[in-house]
Model the fold of this input.
Amino acid sequence: TYGIDLDLDLVDEGSDVPFLPAVVRGTVGQTGEVYEEGGTEEFTLSGAGEVVKDVMVGFGLNFAHGNYRFSRFFREVDINNDNDGTGITTDFESLRLNEALYSNMWGVNLRSGLSAAVTKELRIGLTVETPTQYSVNEDYTMNLDTFFDNGDAYTDRINALNDYTLKTPWRFGGGAALNLKMITISADAEFVDWSQLELKTQNRGDFSFDD
Done:
């Protein structure tokens, strides 16, 4: 949009940076706003019961949802008209950038666990959580406008709709608690192999994780 311009003479000279900026001197005024919000929540259907004496088994079917919103506005103005087209300057007036990203996510998994009293003092537990299959939808827009004193205006627009899935690894956990007369000692550990994380794009647009 001619906020920067390609200089063919610099290209011919083999310059690593063959660009000229629209603003080359003076004072510009810059204003901007950034807005960001989001959140996640989980809804669970669960149950538990004693299958045999001192052995408890429980499960939970979990539905996850999340959303995220980001927007940015930026404006740059040649407030003193220092760049008026004379000398080495262009007649740059102002630049305006608007960006927005909206994202929604849904997922589901199953979590279960077992707790057993080995002795009166010692209890152990095991947990397992299936992979969470998330479906993500994103809508990204960008509008860039550049204005000049002679009335010229240049615009660039981007609109991208991206759909992809995210699959988290299995989770395995175990723990133990020892109840003594005056104290309780407990420990637990969880194993997650993050190399099993999977990202896959859907057939929508040109977006691909393969690249």
Remarks:
- The chain has a mean pLDDT of 92.
